[in-house]
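Suppose you are handed a protein chain with no further information: no name, no annotation, nothing but its sequence. What can you learn? This example shows the usual starting point.
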Amino acid sequence: MIDLTITEALQKLAKREISATELARAHIERIEKYNPKLNAYITTTPERALADAAAADERIKNRTPRVLDGIPIAMKDLFATRGIRTTAASRILENFVPEYESTISQKFIDSGTVLLGKSNLDEFAMGTFSKTSFFGAPVNPWQLERHLTAGGSSGGSTSAVASGMAMGATGTDTGGSIRFPCSITGLVGVKPTYGLCSRWGCVAFASSLDTPGPIARTVDDAALLLSVMAGHDPKDSTSSDVKTEISVPLQPILGDGKKLRVGIIRELADVKVSDDMKNLFEKRVADLKSLGAEIVEVSIPNILDALAAYYVIAPAEASSNLARYDGVRYGLRVEGSDIYDTYKKTRAAGFGDEVKRRMIIGTAVLSSSSYEVYFMQAARVRRLIADAFDRAFENCDLIVCPSGANTALPLDSDLTPLEYYALDLFTVAMNLAGIPAVSVPCGLAANGLPLGMQVVGRKFDDVRALQLAKHIEQCANVDNRPTKVMGK
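A reasonable first move is to predict its three-dimensional structure. Written in structure tokens, the prediction is:
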């Protein structure tokens, strides 16, 4: 039962070959067995899961099923959940229990999902390995004995799905926080077009970059989750009213004479990646060509400047967003001699080192002496990158590139902050441009670990990006069943 995809489980639930309660219990047992080793969940909700499953069983029995009735999921612990602790993996919100529901989590409630718990992440989503979590880092279930990273910031979500402790999960992608973790855990991760999925009720990191999206084992499953998440939300001022129709199973976009121009980014050709990544990427491009795609070279002249621009813009927005955590209204409070001393002591105790680092950087680049030199220059580079993608899409329909340079690294890797930041090289440009990108498994490296590649589309061309990703998935044929990854 653990190895079922979401689409397979829905079929069996509809035929009443299995029950939602049986499915929930199987995943709860899996969590009890493996979460102590993987640390994928910060908070588990078995009682809520069984209640959700019982309600789903009743609807299925009465032939009034919902879109995802009975599907067990993990909710990244950035999304506010009414009555359930929402921590952002931080000390300052360690005991925060919201009295409201985020738009995304409400959409999943309305679609009939079963909530297994809140998944681990980097503190306030700031990190690449999920090591900055106040609750300790989640572990990659692939080659568990090696204690590898599951990525960040959505590392808890990817660890849960890859290990069979959830059938799907939510993530957020600010600079690659869905796509990079999915790449190194053998999963499909979608960074939708900015504005396609509501941010309301999601703890903010960088408001112009944060993008909620789905994590799943197959492209069809990810598309199904995205169909539930997408849609205009009047409570979110950045939510788009563009309607995106997503039907599953996704239809082929290549073959039977169908033509498609697939772009390869010229400026990324000389970026160092592992031999495994290089070889697998070339094989999958060759597969697309054999299916009838026309492979063309495109140019994004400033794409290698994206990392620098991102690490100015994101900390600047974070420093503004995190100003609300002051120990007065909610969260941790450390008493001081006066209100200013209380602010200082609360924030010193409540925030981790990486969050403090980014807040200091962000505050500095927004200062009057640095604003024009750093922040506005980064904003100009952002505009150049977005315009370059627009020009590139005049010559191609979709773009492909690696999701990362290598397979998962050990959690105890001794990297400097700048080396951690560099791991986002292949992903940050899409956030700056606000365009959709899908990470899909493209094969296994010589060491047996998965690698992923991205399909990038025009704004609101999410469906075509998913369709091409499905072709890559079929060509790569990576076996990511949880029992294959971890055993029974």
